[in-house]
Amino acid sequence: MPHVEQGMRVGLFGGSFNPPHGGHWLVAEIALRRLRLNQLWWMVTPGNPLKDHGKLLPLAKRIALSEAITPDPRVKVTAFEATYGLRYTAETLAVIKQRNAGIHFVWVMGADNLAGFHHWQDWQAIARTFPIAVIDRPGSTLSYLSSKMAKTFAHARVDEDDAGRLALMEAPAWTFIHGPRSLLSSTELRSHWPGKS
Fold first, then answer.
1. How is the chain split into domains, by residue range?
2. Parallel, antiparallel, or unpaired: how do β-strands 39-44 and 9-15 relate?
3. Where's the Cytidyltransferase-like domain (predicted)?
4. For residue 105, with 0-12 CB atoms within 10 Å meaning exposed, 13-18 middle and 19 or more buried, which class applies?
5. Rounded Cα–Cα distance for residues 169 and 185 (Å)
6. Among 28, 87, 164, 165, which one is least packed by beta carbons within 10 Å?
7. SS3 78
8. What is the reported pTM?
């Protein structure tokens, strides 16, 4: 895990990043600014149990590609989940919480993940571990109104204007952050890889 100091605000941005692209960087950039983060951990996962990636690039390649598109030194590209043998986000967050007392973490995710968030392993435990910042993505702006997560945790929704204080709040707490959106997607980029029709 990246090195942190007591009292830091740290965003946790996980994904397979297969491949990483400008849309991912835009989410990270918005999170750094709007959440007033000291760091953002760009967590490259071994794979996503809910996705059929077709061809999953090797972990080392996805790490290298991620490092190449993240120019901000506050972004720490890491793949510690593979080292610890972690498969599910809930497990990952539990380990992070256990090993980093005194750090203010926020789970960061693109709005495109919100609609299916209730299919994630122990999704309610995730929402109760750290505050969550949902960053707008194309075609997903209204998903926060209809998703099961948004309805279940409607009482814990924080106004977007208070996003800068989200890291200091007790979970469950979440907000939806509007902003510039990128049309890039890993699925679309993979469709142009050699061997794809």
1. 9-190
2. parallel
3. 12-190
4. buried
5. 31
6. 164
7. strand
8. 0.88
